[in-house]
Design brief:
about 45% strand, about 260 residues, 1 helix, 21 strands
């Protein structure tokens, strides 16, 4: 199959300047709205019929511009809620109404349990749990109980302390969570984490190609994609979600 890929023309609106965009991810909210995670917050994108991509700042329900939090990642969950992970401002929750971005308050009865303000990503699993990889662990929001939990559980000794700083997370079809920390890649049984146990039967990889892996993804062909400091790694998972040989795609650094 052949694709005709064309370069888009950018149209920047309002008081947004090109140097302030610093885009990380582009997420389709619906046919007419693209959410752009950027250094200036979540931006409002639209693909025009003439192959022009217009981008501007969102306004809130009062017509004021939405705060420009440095946004690492944005997702739209299964209920249409917009979640964002930020640098220095924890995480944000919004909904889109009449083209505006309206912030929602997240209430936790047990506080943030030591969460730092640097939330590196946000992820919704198959059970609709919201996970927040953080410098102090892997946090999970519970909507029904209005509480936060954290992995590794602080009350249990012997859990691998290398999992305290979490970068990325994804889930396979077998109920495993794949989690990356600065120099490690893990596959945990999700039930161990949900039930607040120290995992004992898990996979652990320390290969340099997985170092500083910020993005993890499993595609429709059950292939695990890992973006690390040395390139993009791909492994085919079998019917039991066991990883096969890992291929590394990389290119010379422009600084070399």
């Amino acid at each position: 199959e052949t694709y005709n890929i064309k370069e888009l023309n950018f149209k920047i609106g309002g008081d947004l300047e090109e140097k302030d965009i610093n885009a990380f991810t582009y997420i389709e909210y619906n046919d007419s709205l693209i959410l752009v995670s950027s250094g200036s917050g979540i931006l409002k994108g639209r693909l025009e019929n003439d192959a022009t991509f217009s981008i501007q700042k969102f306004k809130d329900e009062n017509g004021d511009q939405v705060g420009g939090h440095f946004m690492y990642q944005t997702i739209v969950d299964s209920e249409g809620t917009v979640w964002g992970s930020t640098w220095r401002n924890y995480f944000k929750k919004y909904y889109v109404e009449n083209g505006n971005l309206v912030e929602q308050e997240v209430v936790s009865k047990n506080g943030l349990l030591g969460m730092t303000a640097f939330v590196r990503s946000v992820y919704e699993d198959s059970q609709k749990n919201i996970w927040l990889p953080n410098s102090n662990g892997l946090y999970k929001l519970s909507e029904t109980q209005s509480m936060i939990s954290v992995f590794p559980p602080a009350h249990l000794k012997g859990c691998d302390d290398q999992t305290y700083s979490i970068y990325g997370i994804t889930e396979d079809s077998g109920g495993h969570l794949w989690v990356s920390s600065p120099y490690n890649l893990y596959r945990f049984d999700k039930d161990d984490i949900l039930e607040n146990r120290c995992p004992t039967n898990y996979l652990h990889f320390t290969d340099p190609q997985f170092h500083l892996a910020r993005d993890l993804f499993i595609d429709s062909a059950n292939r695990l994609w890992v973006s690390g400091q040395n390139g993009l790694s791909i492994s085919q998972l079998d019917e039991n979600n066991e990883p096969g040989p890992c291929l590394l795609y990389t290119s010379p650094s422009p600084r070399d």
